Automatic annotation (TrEMBL):
Annotated ranges, domain Stress-response A/B barrel: 9-103
UniProt-recorded name of the protein: STRESS-RESPONSE A/B BARREL DOMAIN-CONTAINING PROTEIN HS1
Highest taxon of source: Eukaryota
Quaternary structure and partners: Homodimer.
Protein source organism: Salix purpurea
One of the protein's GO biological processes: pollen tube adhesion
Amino acid sequence: MSSTKPKAVKHTLFVKFKDDVTREQIEKIVNDFTHLVNQVEPLKSIHWGTNLGIHDLNFGYTHAFETTFEDVEGLQEYLDSPIVNKFAEGFLPTMAQQFVMDYELY
């Protein structure tokens, strides 16, 4: 671990949606997810994108969602937020698989 203070904390989620999830459902999820930045104070930014398909190393994951926080405490506050938990109630059932990585950015 570095003795340098991290610039930020990232929470990155990779998602493979279930086969029966429609494009419209995914668009609503993305829209709702991006609006969390205005609703959950410790959340500083959200970026998302879809797999470009350049490498065959994506294991079927199609979407990435990257959230940014000032520190680990902000990430934990986000994870514990009733607003985020309500959003997750609709998001989690659409996922066939997910992979999450939390890390400090130096």
